Amino acid sequence: MHTLLRGRPKARKDLAHKTRKRAVQELWLVVIDASASTRRHQALSDAKGLLAQLFDDAYRQRVRVAVMTASGRAPQWHVSGAKASKALDQWLETLGAGGGTPLLDALQEVARWLEVRRKQFAHEQQRFLLVTDGRLKELSSLPRLDCPGLLIDIERGPIRLGRAQQMATDMGIEYQHIDA
Fold first, then answer.
1. How far apart (Å, rounded) are the C-alpha atoms in residues 36 and 103?
2. CB-hemisphere CA count at 13 Å for 97?
3. Which domains are assigned to the chain?
4. What is the pLDDT of residues 133-174, one digit of tens each?
5. Which residues contact 74 (CB under 8 A, 6 or more apart)?
């Protein structure tokens, strides 16, 4: 990039060359547990409010996002590394909960996806967000994703299993309850 620091240049030597620095690209990876258990006590509904704010922040900051839901029989990608857009708001409105919890499959797929992505975008800063009630039958094979992460616990009701906090510890990410 050339600038006109010393007024209008008369010769090539009058141009000051300045290298433009590109901002570091950022990726926010979001996994949403949308199993039937997340319908209880408006847990998923409240999480959708939090996610709407997160997607709006990503849009304003021009961050890339990857969004996966875990419900039914298999996890499903909705966005995989695209710039955040207002279309996420429309998708979020239609997000419902039901079926089983293929969360372990989702987390293992995300770990593989991130490994490939790191090779393609070595300088990308990645952050991980997991929204779940922690109601998994098996916690023994949770992957570590090697990026900063946060688990938002959406478990509510009079009887809480409290597994989400153990999940966060096992995955090496931070923990926070949605009500905090």
1. 12
2. 21
3. 22-177 (3.40.50.410)
4. 988 777 778 899 889 999 999 998 777 778 899 999 999 999
5. 102, 105
